[in-house]
Amino acid sequence: MNSSEKLSDTLLQMYKNVINLEDNARKNVNIRIKLSINEIHFLEAVGSGCKGGCTISALADLLHISKPSVTVMVNKLESKGFLKKNPSKEDGRSVKVVLTRDGAKVNAYYRYFRRRLIKKINDGLTDQEKEFLAKAFEKINIYFKESLDD
Fold first, then answer.
1. What is the rounded CA–CA span in Å between residue 3 and residue 8?
2. How many domains does the chain have?
3. What confidence tens digit (pLDDT) does each residue in 88-129 have?
4. I need a labelling partner for 131 at 20 to 30 A (CA). Which of 16, 31, 69, 100 fits?
5. Residue 94 belongs to a domain with what CATH number?
6. Are the CB atoms for 59 and 70 separated by under 8 Å?
7. DSSP letter at 150?
8. Where are the alpha helices (DSSP H) in the chain?
9. pTM surpassing 0.90?
């Protein structure tokens, strides 16, 4: 297997493993209420994306999805009790989307999950490997961002 094939295979396996790890974490936090991974990622975006709440437009830009898709997700998560819409003080025509107490709990759990995951990865690497990996991931992420903008 050449280096390109190995990179492709490894990237695919990493993606699948992260999805499975997230799904396991989702099941742990989701004893009472069922949330999809997409819903949890959406809560994460609201929780970390904007100070004082996110507008629909800001969330659409942040997540690279359409405003109608954001509106549907906001309404769905609001009905489940994880988000709340507050009228914007700056513009009476728009709303700021914020996490409720339950939404904040889910967001906090996922931040904790990610910190634990990174700690476990870091524990198995030398400082030199950590630095190399961080630079490589930065380059890969730049490629992904540029591909989204195309």
1. 8
2. 1
3. 787 778 899 999 999 999 889 888 988 998 999 999 899 999
4. 16
5. 1.10.10.10
6. yes
7. -
8. 3-29, 37-49, 56-63, 67-79, 101-123, 127-149
9. no
